[in-house]
Backbone:
């Protein structure tokens, strides 16, 4: 790994921490989780933008497969690794430490870190980043709306449906295609394992999200009956 990319990670951790500190100062009456979700939304938007800009040919967004990562792809991955390290530390300072979330962060750091270490399969890695982060702003919007008083409102329901729709499109349509391409190419075994694991986790969350949306729509329908 080039020293310039390696240095980007600690600088990124400090930068994300600084953004969080300023967010806390800007919203002193909001919760720790609220401010952290704003930072997470900023990262998701930045990650999707950087991943999109790193695509070499939109006729085949994941091409070339199993190839040497470009400098832009390496920088994109480093920015997200830095964010994940920041967010992992941030989660440990929250009131309730979520073991599932901690494991998710550790696995993601190992996966993206492997891509940086191998300096290979950059196209597949940034595509995975795009797929996993494209629905994140809608995920965080749901929780932000709840804290500012819009829980169980039409606006919150719209956010739920948008999140479910974008998640389904990205994880259950784009995800399997990316997993197949990654597994069929000559990628390192760790990268292939991460691709398969990501798709299995996505399928698990898809069913949970589908149940959530069904419950909320049924609840809304029943409440409107005379």
Residues:
């Amino acid at each position: 790994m080039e020293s310039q990319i390696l240095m980007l990670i600690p600088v990124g951790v400090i930068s994300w921490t600084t953004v969080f500190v300023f967010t806390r100062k800007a919203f002193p009456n909001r919760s720790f989780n609220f401010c952290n979700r704003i930072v997470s939304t900023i990262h998701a938007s930045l990650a999707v933008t950087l991943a999109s800009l790193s695509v070499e040919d939109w006729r085949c967004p994941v091409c070339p497969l199993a190839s040497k990562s470009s400098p832009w792809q390496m920088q994109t991955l480093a920015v997200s690794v830095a964010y994940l390290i920041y967010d992992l530390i941030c989660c440990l300072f929250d009131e309730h430490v979520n073991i599932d979330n901690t494991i998710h962060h550790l696995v993601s750091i190992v996966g993206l870190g492997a891509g940086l270490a191998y300096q290979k399969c950059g196209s597949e890695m940034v595509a995975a980043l795009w797929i996993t982060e494209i629905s994140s702003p809608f995920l965080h919007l749901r929780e932000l709306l709840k804290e500012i008083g819009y829980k169980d409102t039409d606006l919150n329901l719209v956010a739920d449906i948008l999140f479910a729709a974008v998640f389904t499109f990205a994880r259950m349509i784009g995800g399997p295609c990316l997993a197949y391409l990654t597994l069929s190419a000559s990628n390192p075994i760790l990268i292939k394992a991460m691709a398969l694991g990501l798709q299995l986790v996505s399928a698990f969350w898809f069913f949970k999200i589908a149940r959530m949306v069904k419950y909320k729509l049924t609840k809304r329908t029943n409440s409107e009956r005379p």
Remarks:
- The CA atoms of residues 111 and 194 lie 6 Å apart.
- The chain has a mean pLDDT of 90.
- The two ends are 65 Å apart (CA to CA).
- The chain has eight helices and no strands.
